[in-house]
Design goal:
The structure is a homodimer. Chain A is 30% helix and 20% strand. By secondary structure, chain A is α+β, with helices and mostly antiparallel strands. In chain A, the strands form three sheets. In chain A, strands 6-10-11-16-15-14-13-12 form an eight-stranded mixed sheet, with helices on both faces. A five-stranded mixed β-barrel of chain A has the order 1-2-3-5-4. Chains A and B meet through strand 1, helix 5, strand 6, strand 7 and strand 8 of A and strand 1, helix 5, strand 6, strand 7 and strand 8 of B. Strand 8 (205-207) of chain A pairs antiparallel with strand 8 (205-207) of chain B, so a sheet runs across the interface.
């Protein structure tokens, strides 16, 4: 099978040669006795132009050469001749074909150095593989992303979604390649879990029992409500075995994971350098452009590694991925630069040359307070030491430094139990942890990471405070009992990265089949 | 940070040089004034031998050089000195250190060409990072895999599981690399789904509602029981909106996916060559060495592709992966060859040189019947055309041909609705589909695939017969309405592949944290 990519890669060698290829009609226009078809098989972002001239095409049945081409790997058990030789279409029939129709074209490849596309195919025969009817939903006009979300099974056929999902695939490979080249071990941490150690966000229950017809309440005995904050709140009783789960598949209340971090840490103690990359879930009932119930997360974890080194890794990984995508999804990024975010390519290229800022939270707060006091900028939200940064603060910081900013060493009170309490808070009014949030312009927080608490006693105390020190989390403490070492890691929401790489503003448009409240179609 | 892998890769250059490295004690033995420690950081399968001679080690606090080495990337926001300079251990203290303890060693690398390992480190100082107590569960003796399953968070530290999970990681990368090099687009199909089109196996419910305390029954109105067979059985009412789900997160009965195939097919129509690779789920209440409730599945799908070509791809992909793992997990496979399956390396190397057999099911049945009739082999199960093959039949076929066998063109009555009904069943007594099961010795069925039904009317009829032609599956029919083309694909259970590559016999030992009935710990 010759693909459009094959032709695009080697059209010079194929000059004036006969070629056969199959694809879908993206666009077709005809005037008088000539018809132009943009044919795409999705292997290349740009389609191939097919030129059909009335009177120059063959209307007999397909030639032996065509048959051979389409059957060339037929061997062994290929007992059936599924595709009977199909008739060639007449010019009139070709001109009538609607967008989305699949055809096979044979013709001569000619170079067109004066045109935008460097070559085209002068067809001598066209066969129909599968027609698309007039009511095909993807018409020539530009469709809204909202409309296209309703036909998630067809939208990858559009330029926009073809570009986005190719970038997604290329970025995913870049990340695997990055870690593989550096001898990391990829670990598939579990999706179903009873280990609700993180206590972060709302959980989906996984069950083979029937569900009750009434909505849970926050204090429901079986409720899966977990506190969204991470410390000092009492934990729901979800970890206490409940009689009703005795008959459930796992004989316990099981959930969909919110993060593979704790489990992958166990593997960091075995391999030093590991990562997990898989789907994670939040049953958060919020309809925002940045939240989905199901999303992919990449979480590297490194043993014998402290905070500064893990920031080095995060920065290096991000630049590697951007450079790889710039190199390997060129046509797609150019399209996105033109139609989605003007200046996208410049923005991405600029990052590659920058050394990210590293700014302790305490200094960030002082800078923000000073800026407000001196009226150099106006903020809606007042900030005090101990507060989380608001979006406007994040925006100010990335604009102020004109580059990505690692904000480090946050107040322990607003961060999870597993982050290492700093031995030296250097001027902070209260206890801080050895962590970072990487802020970037447009996307806000892109990566969050930390050095992990490696002291058994401190960790136990923090887990007790957070209400997650239960039988099902004992294994996590074991890691600090049996040869504890400094480990550090981070998490990056893969969809946020794709939004950052493509300029797309809604998470629903970077997930093939997004899951949001009330929507699990397909 | 210098890793064991760095030393292993470049020990010749480091001859007689001072090095510092950190790791865990795998084994320690001492006699008189000399102590030998096998130190591993997991970056290399083989540990490094550390030699400590009493009187030759430094008992003062750590040197400036050590501090510099461990802090060399400290910069920017590294405000805290987390690791205070630690004291060097005395010889007596070193000799007492238990397995699993983490230490930092400085010493001279010397070549040992006469020994099994090509170099060792003559320590001049040893510092403790984290001690492991006497009750550390991984003692010197060999532990049973059953015992190690109980400590899934510690077992990757053993040789066996370190080898298995490294092979798993390498094989995963090999597969991504294979498809990336061939311009496939990686698609993350959804994990949560309402599209129970496949009707294959039992489903897990995903919900935010409370769970009822009684076990569902097969005919329960809300029951998620799906028929295990694939045709002509009536489908449960699970796809009919039930009032109780109005208050659920997705407002419908949502499940964990059993396969991403149908969704990835939508993307094959956009990109021609695609694959999905992610977790899939079966709530099958069976405790066998080959079944887990959560497992990873790789599913490529190719447009403009018929059955023979997709078999070419399956065969090529399998050989590529085996070759890649042989090349990139050499030490691990040698270990597995020695301790898990004698002859593993020979078995894997042999496959690379073989052309797999392609045998229509009808011929396979005739061969089996003939063999039984002529008493060339004895079977427990009689086989008639229309029956599934029993394990003994699969074993006979792979032994008979002495190579992997694609059994193709199975009876339509025992295969799913989406497989293409053959136009030319060539001698079969009844309707067959264009599919294959790839049988290999030891593992049985390793890959299953098919050409997909591309005729709208035939597909609709088959979906109706299978009871899966509902509103939520209409989108799948759309793919055959709007420019239908021949597409083909296959699925390979990733754990089955890892078992095949490692010789490990139980699926619980190739999943980092296996999920089986009654077990979702961690």
């Amino acid at each position: 099978m010759i693909t459009v990519k094959d032709l695009t890669d080697s059209y010079k060698k194929l000059k004036d040669k006969e070629v056969s290829l199959s694809g879908f009609i993206k666009l077709s226009r005809h005037s008088g006795s000539i018809c132009f078809i943009s044919l795409s098989d999705g292997t290349s972002f740009k389609p191939v132009q097919i030129v059909i001239e009335e009177g120059k095409i063959d209307k007999s049945t397909s030639t032996g050469a065509d048959k051979q081409a389409s059957k060339k790997t037929n061997k062994g058990a290929d007992t059936g001749a599924d595709k009977t030789s199909q008739s060639n279409l007449s010019f009139a029939d070709i001109a009538k074909l609607g967008g989305g129709s699949a055809i096979r074209v044979s013709g001569k490849l000619i170079l067109t150095p004066k045109n935008k596309q460097p070559f085209e195919i002068i067809a001598h025969s066209v066969q129909l593989i599968g027609a698309s009817p007039e009511h095909y939903p993807l018409q020539k006009k530009r469709h809204s992303v909202e409309f296209l979300r309703e036909i998630a099974h067809l939208r990858p056929r559009t330029n926009l979604f073809s570009a986005v999902f190719k970038v997604r695939s290329v970025a995913s490979f870049a990340l695997h390649k990055y870690f593989n080249e550096r001898n990391y071990v990829y670990v598939n941490t579990p999706i179903i879990t009873t280990s609700d150690c993180e206590g972060a966000g709302e959980l989906f229950t996984v069950t083979t029992l029937p569900v009750a017809s009434e909505q849970r309440t926050a204090n429901s005995e079986q409720g899966a409500e977990a506190p969204n904050s991470t410390t000092k709140k009492s934990h729901p009783s979800s970890l206490i075995p409940h009689p009703s789960f005795e008959k459930d598949f796992f004989k316990e209340h099981a959930y969909l994971t919110v993060s593979g971090q704790l489990q992958v840490e166990a593997y960091a103690y075995a391999f030093s350098k590991v990562y997990t990359f898989g789907p994670t879930f939040r049953a958060e009932n919020s309809n925002t452009p940045r939240h989905a119930a199901e999303f992919w997360m990449l979480e590297p974890e490194v043993a014998f590694c402290e905070l500064p080194q893990i920031m080095d890794i995060a920065e290096d990984m991000l630049k590697y991925t951007i450079a790889y995508v710039l190199e390997n999804a060129k046509d797609e990024l150019e399209f996105l630069d033109e139609f989605v975010e003007k200046g996208l390519l410049d923005r991405l290229n600029k990052i590659l040359k920058q050394n990210f800022v590293r700014l302790p939270y305490t200094e960030a707060v002082a800078l923000l307070q000073d800026t407000a006091k001196n009226k150099k900028a106006k903020f809606e939200n007042k900030i005090e030491w101990g507060d989380d940064l608001a979006t406007e603060h994040e925006k100010f910081l990335t604009a102020h430094f004109e580059k990505p900013v690692f904000v480090t060493d946050w107040p322990a009170s607003i961060k999870p139990f597993y982050m290492k309490v700093s031995a030296n808070p250097s001027g902070s009014p209260n206890s801080v942890v050895r962590n970072f949030d990487l802020l970037v312009n447009l996307a806000g927080e892109l990566i969050g990471g930390s050095q992990r608490e490696d002291c058994y006693e401190t960790l136990k105390q923090r887990m007790e405070q957070a209400g997650v020190c239960t039988i099902s989390s004992k294994w996590y403490l074991d890691l600090r009992e049996y040869g504890s070492v400094p480990t550090s890691g981070f998490g990056i929401g893969f969809e946020r990265l794709i939004m950052y790489l493509t300029g797309v503003q809604n998470i629903r448009d970077v997930l093939p089949f997004p899951r949001t409240p009330g929507n699990a179609k397909y």
